[in-house]
């Protein structure tokens, strides 16, 4: 802690030629002044490597390497934003974020084709009305292992700060950003505490489906 300042990185993925992507982005966001040499055109599987975080010289073969390249730790939490957050509120969050260089936010925009599917049509319910999701992350190394509790408490403080700016009733969460703070596997209404945050109104239907398909609980949530 102690280093002030932060930076922003924007990543995007477009299915189609880069000339089309540049035209669309310059029409919607002319202030970017995007040019074709700033875009990389590649196959879909190469894009998986690109977004994997393995490094710029990685190949498709590296995706099959199950060995950890470096051991480390992280804590993650998530939110959904359904209404515009004011600049003042964002500044409050960013001021806190700026003093912890090991932490960052990932904001994934929603909309488009996702919004054309009704919330109850598929298990994933976070559809129309969501502007974007937020993943709160903090990472630390083996050398910093003794400060793990401190880092996790810091992230929980940021999550608490954001409470009035995000979805409510319930405060929703993204299931692939598993957050044990929300609760762990239980029976019946115990699991509802975290289950409805991940699945909203689909929770009861999913419970009935699991009881019919997986009565022995082979597949389970931590």
What sort of overall outline do the alpha carbons produce when their principal axes are compared? Answer: globular
Give the structural class: alpha+beta
- Mean pLDDT across residues: 90
Count of alpha and pi helical runs: 6
Unreliable parts? none
Kindly describe this structure.
- By secondary structure, the chain is of the alpha+beta class.
- The protein folds into 2 domains: 13-69, no CATH class; 70-182, 3-Layer(aba) Sandwich (Vanillyl-alcohol Oxidase, Chain A, domain 3), CATH 3.40.462.
- 30% of the residues lie in helices and 12% in strands.
- It is built from 6 helices and 3 strands; from the N terminus they run H-H-E-H-E-E-H-H-H.
- The protein has helices at residues 18-28, 44-51, 87-98, 148-161, 189-199, 203-213; strands spanning 72-81, 103-109, 132-141.
- The protein has a 3-stranded antiparallel sheet, with helices on one face.
- The model has no long low-confidence stretch (mean pLDDT 90).
- Residues 173-222 form the Berberine/berberine-like domain.
- Pfam families: BBE (PF08031).
- InterPro entries: BBE.
- GO terms for molecular function: flavin adenine dinucleotide binding; oxidoreductase activity.
- Keywords: FAD, Flavoprotein.
